Amino acid sequence: MKRLLTLIGSLAVVGLLMAVVTYRFLLPLYSNSQSNSLDPIANWFRDPASRPGLTTRMEGQACPGAPFILPSDGFIGLLWDDPAGPYTVLGTHSGIDIFGDGEAGTVPVRAVYDGYLTRLDEWLSTVIIRHDDPLETGRTIWTYYTHMAPRDGSESYIVEAFPAGTIEAPVKQGDLLGYQGEFAGAGRAPIGLHVHFSIVLSEADGSFKNEALTVNTLDPSPYFGMMMRISDWPERPIGCT
Fold first, then answer.
1. How many CB atoms lie within 10 A of CB 217?
2. According to CATH, what is the number of the domain 36-232?
3. pLDDT at 8 (0 to 100)
4. SS in 3 state form for 116-184?
5. What is the pTM of this model?
6. How far apart are CA 207 and CA 120, in angstroms?
């Protein structure tokens, strides 16, 4: 019996080690292989001379037939449902990341569509806008914008018109919301300059769902008229389809 228990214990340890190796090493390797985002993102930060060739510049204009304008001109790096690191196939990216070419606090972020803006009391770098869905009559959706603060969180880059605690302030497509930053959250490592944007579904009571879960968000491709989901494997820069 003692030998059997020892054997069972040894097998459990081996199983645990295999699970750790899979989670720490094999899962990220596999996840990165399911994305084409990492190389262009690396080029963007490693070689500033490459940036013009990676930038999608719409200057506030929508693609033909699409309702949304881009929230910011720049390099559309991580895409919707993207498993590239720091994400994995078990927890993919819930929106798109647009990396701006400039200093923190200087690259504008604008409302993609008419709606009503909320900024919760605790939100330093984030706003969310409620919309009547232009692609599905009767449905309420939300657009979410974050990272609008410096890396140390010492201030907010959101414009003064939308202080913390703002509820349902009307905004028009193209209105300035703030500026791209590098704030990832209190206690977290800073990130490269960008704005994270996602389209969020509503709860039954009309409030917004948890944006961090991809299942609670929508593929932004038809709203922008661009290939923005990773399964399309688009080349960069991304343009109108």
1. 24
2. 2.70.70.10
3. 55
4. EEECCCCCCCCEEEEEECCCCCCCEEEEEEECCCCCCCCCCCECCCCCCCCCCEEECCCCEEEECECCC
5. 0.91
6. 13
